[in-house]
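Running low. Got one?
___
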Amino acid sequence: MKVKKVLAVMLALVMVFALAACGGGGSSSGGSSGGSSGGESSGDTIKLGWLGALTGDGAVWGTCESQTLEMLIEQKNAEGGLLGKQIELVKYDTQGKADEVPNVTTRLTSQDNVSAIIGPNSSGQAIAMTPILTSAKTAGIATVATGERVTVDNGQLNEYNFRVCFIDPYQGAVVGSYAYDKLGCRKAAVLYDQGSDYSEGFKQYFKEEFEKLGGEVVIEKAYSAGDQDFRVQLTDIKNAGVDCMLMPVGSNGDIYTIVPQVAELGLDAVLLGGDTWQSEDVNKMSGPRLAGSYVCNHYDASDPALKPLQDAYHEKYGADATIEINAYMANDAFLLWCAAVEAAGTADPEAVAAQLTQVEVDGLTGHIKLSEEDHNPVGKEASIQTYEYDEATGTNKEVFVEKYSPL
């Protein structure tokens, strides 16, 4: 009799565990949660993936980007969600390292079963996602990954890589053309991050455009991310007698390290840069020498259309929370993904990917329509901005100059 009772208890326990296994849910560590295939969990949730730097190099951008997506998803869910379902963000920290990306991308696509992935915030990391995205037939929508090889590598389209930003060849050509055409520069220097795909690519395309128009890049100097003393390179550049200096930094922290040393050495050249300069930290920490510099950017920082996002971000994360370019790019990537899901009528990753070149949205950085040929935005103009220094506050501010395309 006792044996029968023991067997009955054991059988009951087995049934309990079996039921729990069938119906179990809940989040695991690292921001991931379990779910069924097709980018959906429990039938009433759509999962969107994100990866990027939350620690290490680029963390200031990744933090802003992921927080913006969390805010946008909260707003969207309050409005009823997408396809009548709530959206869940599943995010992972790459620590700013490309070698962390394959494992994280695999987890998002095969374990978390996301509908698509927004991010990362660098070209090297976006390129590292490619084979996993292709195998999983899941779209990666890059935000500020401007390297040419993100979507097209050696003439071959990366079928599941997309982006909402213009690319380095275009950005380099814009700055090279603007320096020659509008600023009257004829002799240029380049100070670049030798470990950054972005910096190397920007340098190359700037040089090609500037020299095609009749200018000359008379000196190129390299450094490594994290360097603190640039006086040797800057002294050589000063002695070369240039009238402009391109600084396509891989990390915006380099700007407020380099610029004060430019002032200290009395290097009298127009400073030029790209979208990685865009940061409230750059404005606060670079000093008065930043004034008069020119950058190519994805949007007009003074556009009143940005204010609702800015206000919402500061309300949620604090008045002192730094808003980077990634906030606006993440906004546009999210809008594009939402439009693709709605057009597909499902959150299935492959169906969503197929719609990303068919839909178009009006984003904060311009009208977004992705090309079927290269998965890049079609016809996005660049914004040229300069800086003004406010002695009362000790900070710089961006001032929109004009929309510009290369000659």
Notes: The longest helix spans residues 2-23. Residues 1-38 have pLDDT under 50 and may be disordered. The chain is about 40% helix and 20% strand. The radius of gyration is 24 Å.
